[in-house]
Amino acid sequence: xxxxxxxxxxxxxxxxxxxxxxxxxxxxxxxxxxxxxxxxxxxxxxxxxxxxxxxxxxxxxxxxxxxxxxxxxxxxxxxxxxxxxxxxxxxxxxxxxxxxxxxxxxxxxxxxxxxxxxxxxxxxxxxxxxxxxxxxxxxxxxxxxxxxxxxxxxxxxxxxxxxxx
Length: 165
What we know:
With 165 residues, the chain is of the alpha+beta class. The chain has 1 helix and 12 strands; from the N terminus they run αββββββββββββ. The protein is globular, with a radius of gyration of 22 Å.
């Protein structure tokens, strides 16, 4: 009799553990089938080219911006950039496949990067409040990693340059 009771309790505990695991799995990741799912808490800010996702998170306490670039077909990030206004991150291999993340001034702005003397328009990522520093990304052509050369120019809606770096 006692052996049967223990077996029932064991099966009930196992079923409860399985139900808990399934419930928790449904809470993590947030996959609603409506598109790509990024790291927990990050929103898709944009796609660079055909297959690189730019995931964005803004700290609620400090306002710091965190950007993860990730190839859609891979689980490892291409790079991570954390910062605020004026932060520049050159990610990937500059000689073969560079990516640039620039955290520019707040507002509805357009940013152009000069990369080894050639202008490259940058894409502003979505999901960042316009009152905060904005995040721009680009996939410029390969360059010489030993002589990195870039600058930024940010223009407001009227076309007036409001920031250079």
